[in-house]
Amino acid sequence: MKDQEEQIITSAMDTDFYKVTMQKGVFHQYPKTQVEYTFTCRDKGVKLGFLAEKVNRQVKMMENLKLTEKEENFLRSIRFMTSDYIDFLKNFRFDSNRVKAIDHDGNLEITISGLWLDTILYEVPLLAIVSELYFRETSNFEELKQEGINRLNKKIELINQYRLPLVDMGTRRRYSAEWQDYVVGRLASECESFIGTSNVYLAMKYNIKAIGTQAHEWFMAHLGLVDNIREAQKRALYVWLQEYGTDLGIALTDTFTTKAFFKDFDLTLSTTFSGMRCDSGDDPVFFGNEAIDHYKGFNINPRTKDLIFSDSLNIPKAIAIFLQLIQKIKTSYGIGTDLMNDLSIKALNIVIKLSMSNGVWVTKLSDSPGKTMGNLELAKEIKRLYDIQD
């Protein structure tokens, strides 16, 4: 086992790209907005409270991180990363005072609070810290490594057989930073259909594309930034266009349910955004056909748009979706846990979600039963306003 005190996050850019793209939007649009985030372990009966002090020490270690010259140059090479934002990022430092991890009756409770601008980068590294600490305590990598390699070999064979358009989205629930690095390195060198990774540091290291637009929090935060919550999702989408134009045009669909999304995704948005990301729901192919019908309703050729699927995928499931939609619309597949934490032991199902924005307790509904989080009364009101039946 590794030394329990070895620093896990060793780069300020060991994070998902959508955190960076959202932070840039916050930097320009909402620099004074106060927020709070909370941690949830969705695995019933799994007690993680014993990790609390180790998490706090890891966050303290992160205070020594800053953007390196190589990382700065990589970000500046991305056309839509503006100089004023990168200059801000050069001076950004993690502050352990913004994070509180405690053991509450055996459960791990983590809160992150402060300005949205200052706290937005904590979620992904914190989840990666919890996951890696847990597996340092409960497993031995050297004993699991060969099984992980065997499973990865089979996945690479399938990816190449079907030329599956694939994106790594596994930073948050990875077994370890070392394992994600190994997997991304192999995908980058062995799979022609590998599009890129959500991890900024690994995108730079392997000279591949950093992938990401916005997450649920972008839409959730707008519940506290509008006077009429029925306008929150549409406002979030139009502000995103204001920030990025057509550069980052994949819209996340399920924050307030896909039904609500399609009601808000009007002709202008449907035309301007390059596509959609499906992150929940029971039937991804059904979603794909819904999206196709939505575009056709506006006389938009679906073949000019992209769909990204990212909900609890494994390689066989992604291939099945790919084969059913390949003749209808362009697709790609964001796979996380199945690539970055499949070494014969069960991965953790952990999340950190925005819980408050601008003094308002916010919510996320999702298309999957049991994934509604946050302010349940607000969730009921959103369902009423969008005429969504349980």
Write up this protein.
The protein is α/β, with parallel strands linked by helices. The chain folds into two domains: about 15-140 and about 345-385, nicotinate phosphoribosyltransferase (Alpha-Beta Barrel), CATH 3.20.140.10; about 140-340, nicotinate phosphoribosyltransferase. The protein is built from 17 helices and 14 strands. It has helices at about 15-30, 50-60, 70-75, 85-90, 115-120, 125-140, 140-160, 175-190, 200-205, 215-220, 230-245, 260-265, 265-270, 285-295, 315-325, 335-340, 375-385; strands spanning about 35-40, 100-105, 105-115, 165-170, 195, 210, 250, 275-280, 305-310, 330-335, 350-355, 360, 365, 375. The chain has a seven-stranded parallel sheet. The protein has a five-stranded antiparallel sheet with strand order 2-3-1-11-12. Strands 13-14 form a two-stranded antiparallel ribbon. Helix 14 (about 285-295) links the parallel strand 8 (about 275-280) and strand 9 (about 305-310). Helix 1 (about 15-30) crosses helix 11 (about 230-245) and helix 2 (about 50-60) crosses helix 6 (about 125-140). The radius of gyration is 20 Å and the shape is globular. The model has no long low-confidence stretch (mean pLDDT about 95).
CATH topology of the largest domain: nicotinate phosphoribosyltransferase
Stretches with pLDDT under 50, minimum 5 residues? none
Mind summarizing the main beta sheet? 7 strands, parallel
Number of domains: 2
Report the mean per-residue pLDDT as an integer. 96
Structure summary, number of beta strands:
14
Shape: globular
Radius of gyration: 20 Å
CATH architectural group of the largest domain: Alpha-Beta Barrel
Which structural category do the helix and sheet elements fall into?
Answer: alpha/beta
